[in-house]
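Box 4.2: Ligand-aware structure prediction
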Amino acid sequence: MKNIVAIYPGSFDPVTNGHLDLIHRGSKLFDKLIVAIARNLDKTATLFSMEERKQMLQAMTSELDNVTVDTFEGLLVSYCIQQNANAVLRGIRAISDYEFELQMALMNRKMEPRVETVFMMPAEQYSYLSSRIVREIAKLGGPLNGLVPKMVEERVRERVAQRYISATGKHLL
Ligand code: ADP
């Protein structure tokens, strides 16, 4: 039997129910799944620090024995080799994800043919969900129930309120 270790990379700013749906599916398929928070140099203005994102992911996946949470910098394929991983897990929501994901998967395969990319689809109700939309709804005071776990919702609301106070000197209504 093969021992399949998969890396699920992303920014997880914050973790959503769509990410968790994929993590549950992945934990059933792979022997070991490492959820890896990427330090993305382009995303300068993140809502949460790497450590905060890691803590939230750990809290939300603690019941899954074969899932661990880590952070990484640099090339994903180099991190895969360092972790002895043979697969990368990515989620495909809509057709719009496909082109970018195809390019990434083919480029990663060219750089490191030992690592295969595996795509999974979330449950339909999460197919329009992204961390970005969660951050935007929170900034506009909209409802987050069903999109992120309760604990994450509280952390997001708290952080958005803090940011609003530091930017404007006023409290959010
Ligand atoms: P987001 O796109 O939410 O900012 P990330 O950059 O953290 O998320 O994405 C990490 C991975 O998780 C990507 O493969 C992305 O396609 C996938 N993903 C994100 N949201 C969902 C979702 N709702 N359903 C399935 N996969 C998702």
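In the box above, the bound molecule is adenosine-5'-diphosphate. The chain has six helices and five strands.
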